[in-house]
């Protein structure tokens, strides 16, 4: 079975990366960019609405 992942994009520094949903907090929790340390709700780091839906379904 393949493991699902979500794509993230920092709204401040434009760093993009991917992560598995189990390694991330809830979408409404504060998350910090690993590159510039910007702090926002995790949902604001989701690259697309589909990534946000995937995160919500798999958590």
Task: Give structural notes.
The protein is 17% helix and 24% strand. Strands 1-2 form a two-stranded antiparallel ribbon. It has a two-stranded antiparallel ribbon with strand order 3-4. Strand 3 and strand 4 (39-41) form a beta hairpin. By secondary structure, it is α+β, with helices and mostly antiparallel strands. It has one domain (6-58). It is globular, with a radius of gyration of 11 Å. This is DUF7836 domain-containing protein. Pfam families: DUF7836. It comes from Halapricum desulfuricans.
Keywords:
two-stranded antiparallel ribbon, 24% strand, alpha+beta, 17% helix, 59 residues
Number of domains: 1
- What is the global morphology? globular
Radius of gyration: 11 Å
- Average predicted local confidence, pLDDT: 95
Write down how many β-strands occur, each being a DSSP E stretch of 2 or more residues. Answer: 4
Give the strand order, joined by hyphens, for the main sheet.
Answer: 1-2
Protein name: DUF7836 domain-containing protein
InterPro entries: DUF7836
């Amino acid at each position: 079975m393949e493991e699902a992942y979500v794509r993230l994009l920092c709204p401040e520094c434009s760093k993009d990366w991917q992560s598995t949903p189990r390694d991330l907090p809830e979408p409404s929790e504060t998350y910090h960019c690993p590159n510039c340390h910007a702090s926002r709700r995790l949902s604001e780091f989701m690259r697309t609405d589909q990534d946000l839906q995937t995160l919500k379904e798999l958590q």
